[in-house]
Fold this sequence. Notes:
Strand order of the largest sheet: 5-6-7-8
Number of strands: 8
Largest sheet: 4 strands, antiparallel
Strand content: 35-45%
Bound molecules: zinc ion
Shape: globular
Number of domains: 1
Amino acid sequence: xxxxxxxxxxxxxxxxxxxxxxxxxxxxxxxxxxxxxxxxxxxxxxxxxxxxxxxxxxxxxxxxxxxxxxxxxxxxxxxxxxxxxxxxxxxxxxxxxxxxxxxxxxxxxxxxxxxxxxxx
Length: 120
Ligand SMILES: [Zn+2]
């Protein structure tokens, strides 16, 4: 499997972490989630974005099966931030998937807490 690299920071990135960013006029670039958020924040003149990378967490369901959830936080505009939690199978999203939407100045941990409540 070939690993894609972010066209901004040149770091290798997992498929689930890659986002096409751009427009018809400027062309598209493949960015990692962190660089995507930086670009969006810059576009809207936002300087106080908490651009954190969230570590995966393991949760056990009522049947005793373990699920590993990965997180992706995306800034979608001056008033919207989306936090996804999802399972991976061979590096692509599969299984359970949850989403919570908040405001960019919400505390990331608050969003995460809300999402983890949904996971349970
Ligand atoms: Zn990057």
